[in-house]
């Protein structure tokens, strides 16, 4: 079986921290799920 690690951000409030996690996940080829509402406007998925 092939299991892939995913990161879930539950209602993130700080855009800078979210961006850091997204860049980190991109480097490791991981998936990130952002569970809204976020504390900042997000153009992802729109």
Walk me through the structure.
This protein has a two-stranded parallel sheet. The termini are far apart. It contains 1 helix and 2 strands. The model has no long low-confidence stretch (mean pLDDT 89).
Q: Layout of SSEs?
A:
Blueprint: E1 6-10, H1 15-28, E2 31-35
Parallel strand pairs: 1-2
Descriptive tags:
alpha+beta, 2 strands, about 20% strand, about 45 residues, globular, 1 helix
* Lateral strand order in the biggest sheet: 1-2
Largest pleated sheet: 2 strands, parallel
Provide the helix percentage. 25-40%
Q: What order do the SSEs take from the amino end to the carboxyl end, as H and E?
A: EHE
Mean pLDDT equals 89
Please state roughly what percent of the residues sit in beta strands, choosing from under 5%, 5-15%, 15-25%, 25-35%, 35-45% or over 45%: 15-25%
Low-confidence stretches: none
**Tally of separate helices:** 1
Distance between the termini: 33 Å
Count of strand segments? 2
* Oligomeric state as shown: single chain
Kindly name the structural category.
alpha+beta
**Using only CA atoms, what is the Rg?**
11 Å
Broad shape: globular
Structure described in brief:
The protein is of the alpha+beta class.
């Amino acid at each position: 079986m092939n299991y892939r690690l995913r990161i879930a951000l539950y209602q993130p409030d700080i855009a800078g921290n979210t961006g850091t996690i997204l860049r980190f996940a991109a480097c490791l080829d991981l998936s990130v799920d952002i569970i809204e509402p976020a504390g900042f406007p997000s153009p992802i998925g729109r």
